[in-house]
Design brief:
This protein is α/β, with parallel strands linked by helices. The protein folds into two domains: about 180 residues, NAD(P)-binding Rossmann-like Domain (Rossmann fold, 3-Layer(aba) Sandwich); about 120 residues, Orthogonal Bundle (N-(1-d-carboxylethyl)-l-norvaline Dehydrogenase, domain 2). Helix content is about 50%, strand content about 20%. The protein contains twelve helices and ten strands. Helix 6 crosses helix 12. The radius of gyration is 19 Å and the shape is globular. It binds NADPH dihydro-nicotinamide-adenine-dinucleotide phosphate (NDP) and ketopantoate. The site of ketopantoate (KPL) has 8 residues, from strand 8 and helix 6.
Length: about 300
Amino acid sequence: MNISIVGAGALGSYFGVRWSKAGANVQFIVREKRAAQLQDNGLKINSMNGDDQIENPVIVTDPTQAAPADIIVVSVKGYHLESVIDTLEKLVDAHTYILPILNGVKHYDVLTNHFGKKKVLGGLANIIATLDDNGHVKHTSKIDEIRFGPLDEGQIEICEQLAEISAAANMTSVYSDKILTDIWYKYMFITAFSGITTVSNMEIGELLVHEETKDIIQQLLHEMRQIAFCEKVDLTVQHLEKAWKTLYSLPASATSSMHQDYRKGLHVELEHLQGAAIELASKHQLDIPHLKTIYGILKAKISL
Ligand SMILES: NC(=O)C1=CN([C@@H]2O[C@H](COP(=O)(O)OP(=O)(O)OC[C@H]3O[C@@H](n4cnc5c(N)ncnc54)[C@H](OP(=O)(O)O)[C@@H]3O)[C@@H](O)[C@H]2O)C=CC1
Ligand SMILES: CC(C)(CO)C(=O)C(=O)O
């Protein structure tokens, strides 16, 4: 299988290396700075599930020079999505599918508006990873799950092919026949988790102490569930319980990637996650006071 990765950051590099080692032809579509780093240092992953590396990754800076791909994995941050549309236009041909693995849902509208619903597969990732100063992947928990599935009947075959190569890779992969629900479950979870950790600048262990704080998290999850319902995605009470259980299962020092980015002074996906949720709520005239409060405070904090 030929896989192009657009966004060779933490996630794109991690899964790209694992697929490559399983026998896929993987090329990384990158900008000049990342290209230089990959040429100088190679592509390595340091992982609790086993280190791995590609000495000479296939690096492409001009998308018109890229080899045709069966699947283009999009793993940029939400705020960079618009900037890769041009690149994707040069990469997509009649046979190519796009697999986004960003958090959130807003990118599905952007991608399907440009490329059509038949082209865009459903995907998400559950992993805690970042790039170190050498541009190597630091994967810091046992979880390294990529989850994907068809959003359209015509996508079943390509998802099955991806499942086959992924099963041979040293990572966890799940072919889901209810990927839209999975994407929304993750969106509910991450919007609450990233919102509360970033706004408070606190880790999860510190946040699960007082009933009053826990109530805010519950309300955030509940508001996200209401938005999902209006978008015709039925997140059940069991989904809420699962989110709650997951929060309790995390080590006390765990936090969201948004909070980690905030602490490093990096740009955060506020508009892509909480901002987009507020837009959807407003379309459905839903009252979501907790999400709006978190968003309003974060907006002020990140513009400091
Ligand atoms: N990190 C994590 O643990 C998790 C992240 N996620 C989600 O996955 C998504 C990706 O996150 P993550 O991997 O951490 O992000 P990173 O910031 O590590 O990687 C994003 C990469 O996209 C590249 N990029 C941006 N614009 C372009 C462009 N125009 N052309 C080519 N490459 C480009 C950046 O490269 P450059 O160096 O050129 O800027 C960067 O390397 C996010 O939505 C995040 O929320 C989900 C689960 C866990
Ligand atoms: C919660 C986690 C680590 C799960 O993948 C995540 O998606 C994030 O923090 O962005």
